[in-house]
Structures are given as structure tokens and as C-alpha cells.
Task: structure prediction
Amino acid sequence: MSGPKLFQSLDVGGLSLINRIVIAPMCQYSAVDGRMTDWHLIHLGQLALSGAGLLTIEATAVEPEGRISYGDVGLWDDETEAAMARVVDAVRQYSDMPIAIQLAHAGRKASTDLPWEGGAQLAPEHANGWQTIAPSPEAFDEKEHAPVALDRGDMKRVRDNFVAATHRAARLGLDAVQIHAAHGYLLHQFLSPLSNRRDDEYGGSLENRMRFPLEVFDAVRAAFPADRPVTVRVSGSDWVDGGWDAEQTIAFAQALEARGCAAIHVSSGGLDPRQQIPVGPSYQVPLARAVKQAVSMPVVAVGLITDYEQAEAIVATGDADMIALARTILYDPRWPWHAAAALGARVKAANQYLRCQPRQYKDLFNVEK
Result:
């Protein structure tokens, strides 16, 4: 197939994507008691018209205590499912872009205020706060309230709640599930030796630290229809000496692939306030490249990917199979259109927008239905 690699199709666990541009999950902190609102309809609706290959619903808590903030989306009961169904059904009236959902639990990084209100952790006694949980009783920051260490019953409950949310996602007709094991949230907390200080079979060695995240993956994979993909998002490094790193990420990725993981999305950081992140264009791509060299499943790169040629180079050179956009596509919701114009490719557009096609790009829009 000729043309830019960024706009070539890709099969991910049986799900066909028209191009390699993925819209990453982005928390909006605009839910009410876990229920999506009209804001989510506007937000997801515009992104579904962007021409990207896949839209991912933001980190969605599998239980109320798993929310990052009291404004987070959830999928734990009939009310949260119905609210999400309203949004998803409305978006799908006007877009056939595949929709995935990221299922998550924030662990010790839960119970925070909204970002535009400072984002500080709220104490359990606060009206909008609650007691957090984690693999071990160490807080993310010394100024924060310590989490309660999960016992076996808690771990079973969390795993079962991932499964219940997965069943709800399947009923909603969502095309894929992504498990959130990155950015310092609960499953990442189990993976990293900086946050997992357990002395049972879920702590200590790499094999033990991977055990609970892999159990969650196995349970979710079994609960989601076999013809729809389950993927995982990971942090490729804690960026702290002695923490989670690329070598451990590769081992985890290989274990996931052996269990049927359809793709892995490689981000980084978020676990420890001491992190020293070398932020710059494509700064996380080397982590994706390292994983890509060790697995056969598709790999997604993310992080300060803003330029069209930059994105094309990442997939064309084989550093990753897809690129994910977050802040970039919030700033420019038509980024895929502009990338297609710059690279000489075609992109999908709604009939209502066809007349905006610039004359110099008369073959930009693919109007095939």
C-alpha cells in the first residue's frame, strides 16, 4: 500500500482502524456522581468528527472510590451506564468511528479536587472526598492522607468491579476496552517497587508485582466479547531511580501479549512526585520503541506528538504502529484533516462539512460510505 503510513489501515485484535491516529483518553472532570453529562456529548461528539481512527472514552472508574476526582466518569451501576449510553448513542448517529473505553481505578491518587480548583487530594471527611486504597499504605505525597492497603477481599472486589464494568461496556456496544495500568494509578501502583511494598505473593519480585494487574487483565479479557480487543496502557518508566522502568515494561508487555492483549499504549510517569521527566517532542517514543522491538502486538506511542511529519516518522520507521493524541487534538480537533492535507493522504469527513474542503486539496476528503 502506498501513501503515508499514518493513514494506512490497521487491524487491532479484529477491530479495523482506517488510520493510525488514536484519540487518547482524556479526563474531563465533568461527570455528576459518575454520570456523563452534556459536556461529554459535546466533547466526544466533536472528536468523533475529527477523522482519527479510534476514539477512547476517558478514564472510567469501575467503582466510586476508583475515581481520580468527584467529577470523574464511572461505569459501576445502571445510572452510570444509562448516562454513557445516551452519549455514545448520540455520537454514533453521526460518526462510525470506533469507540473504546479506558477502565480504571485511581488507587491512592483518588479523592482529589477538580484540576481547575487546584487538584489537591481531599481528606476522607471532606464532602467530596473518600478513603483511598493502594497495594501498600504509603501515600503518593507526604502531605496526603495515607491509603489503606488492600487485603485479598478488597482485591477480589476491585477485580470483580473491572469485570462488571467490562460487561456494561460490552452491552453499550463499545468496540474495545483499554485497561489503565499507567500514570501512578492502582494497577501501576502494584507494578512499581516504589509503591508496592507488600510481603505476600503480590509484592517483591517482578513476577509478584505483575500478578494482580495480570489477574485483572485475564478477568477483563474473559468478560469482553472474544471478537473485540482488550488493550492496556502502561507507563514505560517512573523516571525515578529504583522504580518501574523500560526493562520491566517489556516483561509486562510480553506477559500481556501471551494472554491475548491486542495492543499496548506506552506512556510514562505519574507514580512518584520525585520523577524527573525529560519532556520534549517525542520524549516517550523511545519507550514505545523498546516495547515494539520485544512484542508482535501493535504499540501506541504518545506524548508531545504535534507535528504531522513527526507523527508520520514515528510509524513509518517502525518505532510504533500508532500515535495517540491528547492535548494536541484538544487544541486542534481537526488535526487529522490537517495531517492528511500535509502528507498527501485522504481523511473521512461528515457530509455536512464537505463544502469546507480547500480547492488545493480537492482529494482530501474520502466521501465513500
About this structure: The longest helix spans residues 152-171.
